Amino acid sequence: MSEISCEEVLAEVEDYLHGELDPDRARLLAAHLRTCSPCWERAEFARKLKDIVRVKCTTQSPEHLVVRIRETIRRETFQTSDEPQTGSDDTKFI
């Protein structure tokens, strides 16, 4: 029997697939997946879905849009750097 339950594996399978687990935890999940076909099937489904989304959901922005955005950023940056610093910035970021 594995040292980790199916519930734990399924709760962490996304982190495992994204390589976000520490090495010891990743080895533990990998060992469980090698011996538990229901968990392996769920993990394999998630992996394939992740790959499909990565391939299908990529778009190239039109060059004219990229140019406009860069120009706006440069203009905003230039204007901001020319403004005197008052030392009390009440701007709040959300």
Characteristics:
94 residues; disordered C terminus
Describe how the helices and strands are arranged:
Blueprint: H1 6-17, H2 23-35, H3 37-56, H4 63-82
Helix pairs in contact: 1-2, 1-3, 2-3
Looking at how many chains there are and whether they match, the oligomeric state comes to: single chain
Which residues form runs of ≥5 with pLDDT under 50?
Answer: 88-94
Radius of gyration: 23 Å
Overall SS class: mainly alpha
How many helical elements? 4
Q: What is the residue-averaged pLDDT?
A: 85
How widely separated are the two ends?
48 Å
- What is the number of E strands? 0
Note the main sheet.
none
How much strand?
Answer: under 5%
Series of H and E elements: HHHH
The general outline is: elongated
- DSSP helix fraction: 55-70%
What's this, in brief?
The protein is mainly alpha-helical and 94 residues long. The protein has helices spanning 6-17, 23-35, 37-56, 63-82. The protein is elongated, with a radius of gyration of 23 Å.
Could you walk me through the main structural features you see in this protein, from its secondary elements to its overall organization?
This protein has helices spanning about 5-15, 25-35, 35-55, 65-80. It is about 70% helix and about 0% strand. With about 90 residues, it is mostly helical. Helix 1 packs parallel to helix 3 and helix 2 (about 25-35) packs across helix 3. It has four helices and no strands.
